[in-house]
Design brief:
The chain is of the alpha+beta class and 332 residues long. The protein folds into two domains: 6-99, Beta Barrel (Lipocalin), CATH 2.40.128; 108-329, Alpha/Beta hydrolase fold, catalytic domain (Rossmann fold, 3-Layer(aba) Sandwich), CATH 3.40.50. Helices cover 20% and strands 39% of the residues. It contains six helices and 21 strands. It has a nine-stranded antiparallel sheet with strand order 4-3-2-1-9-8-7-6-5. An eight-stranded mixed sheet has the order 10-11-13-12-14-15-16-17, with helices on both faces. Strands 18-21 form a two-stranded antiparallel ribbon. Helix 4 (241-253) crosses helix 5. It is globular, with a radius of gyration of 20 Å. The model has no long low-confidence stretch (mean pLDDT 93).
């Protein structure tokens, strides 16, 4: 039987509620598979699969290995069908998907990039859209270790909407000074890498930072040579006016977007919003707080008042808010 490739589709069903799924599996080199999962009814949760393995007839892959709330698929190939178990966080259900033609082409290419000035093994992933444009605006993403998997989903979303994305390696919480900060040096190296990448419009490069490393990492955006033009702060803890001062300084120099999920239990969201919002005044800066959203800006699945299961989804408005704001900062 030939290697498993193609466009598969079908539903997953939980408590009587269907969710349409599509899976595109490609062979990039002999014996090497690549796949993307999409949810046509839930824009913003498409993702490139991780830990993909296929040993005839068994298929396995994950969304965010080791991360809570992730998706895992274990299936058996039966001709043109995939039959198996779909797991999303604590939800588990059986499925049957059918092959319907060739896999869609991934709309971006991915390559590894060495980060200048760091250790020789310090590598980042560069995602470059594949369309007719010659240069693209770019976003450098610095995740923390808690949400490294979600950062890959963010990168996929942006690359599918016309942004080059440089996904940096996750950095642990870092309380050092900027001179000794891994977060600062990693962000600086990422911004420097963008200056030499021919596919990037260097006049429209931004930095996206998640978590407690933001105060140090964003100092890299203030360096003249960085040419950073905007910043996104996701789930950044701010416990006082003093802690808000670095972001106030940042917002005086460039537009800043703050993103919070109201149900994020990794920080005091209400306190952080209270201190960050007045600090980000002017220059198109804003803070967005999404009700019921967790640390990944996702509303987890639940059963509504009518007894119907509601599948997890991005916080309502989050994807459109994000893309609209980014496009406003990158208009040529």
């Amino acid at each position: 039987m030939p290697v498993l490739t193609g466009h598969f589709e079908g539903p997953v069903t939980y408590q009587g509620t269907d969710l349409r799924v599509t899976l595109d599996v490609r062979e990039t080199t002999p014996g090497q598979l690549q796949a993307d999962m999409h949810f046509p009814e839930i824009p913003g949760i498409s993702f490139p699969v991780a830990n993909l393995s296929y040993r005839e007839p068994q298929l396995h892959f994950e969304q965010q290995p080791g991360q809570p709330g992730s998706i895992t698929v274990n299936a058996v190939r039966e001709g043109d069908f995939l039959r198996g178990i779909f797991t999303w966080d604590t939800i588990q259900t059986q499925f049957v998907w059918v092959r319907r033609g060739q896999a869609a082409t991934r709309p971006y290419r991915e390559q590894s990039v060495r980060l200048p000035g760091l250790a020789a093994n310090s590598m980042a992933s560069l995602l470059i859209p594949q369309d007719t444009a010659q240069r693209y605006p770019a976003v450098v993403i610095l995740p923390d270790q808690i949400t490294a998997g979600a950062a890959a989903t963010r990168a996929d979303l942006l690359a599918r909407h016309g942004f080059v994305v440089l996904l940096l390696p996750a950095v642990a919480a870092d309380s050092a000074s900027a001179a000794d900060s891994v977060a600062y040096h990693t962000a600086s190296a990422g911004l420097a890498a963008c200056r030499t990448e021919s596919s990037i419009d260097t006049a429209h490069v931004g930095l996206w930072v998640r978590g407690a490393n933001a105060a140090l990492a964003t100092q890299a955006a203030l360096q003249a040579q960085s040419k950073c033009r905007f910043a996104v702060l996701e789930g950044v803890p701010v416990a006082s006016r003093t802690q808000a001062q670095p972001f106030q300084l940042l917002a005086r120099q460039l537009p800043v977007l703050g993103l919070y999920g109201a149900a994020d239990t990794t920080l005091n969201v209400r306190e952080s919003v209270r201190y960050l919002r007045p600090a980000l005044k002017g220059r198109a800066s804003a803070v967005r707080l999404y009700p019921n959203a967790n640390r990944n800006l996702t509303v987890v699945g639940y059963t509504n008042a009518q007894g119907q299961w509601q599948w997890p989804q991005p916080a309502p408005g989050y994807v459109s808010d994000l893309l609209t704001w980014l496009r406003q900062q990158t208009v040529r």
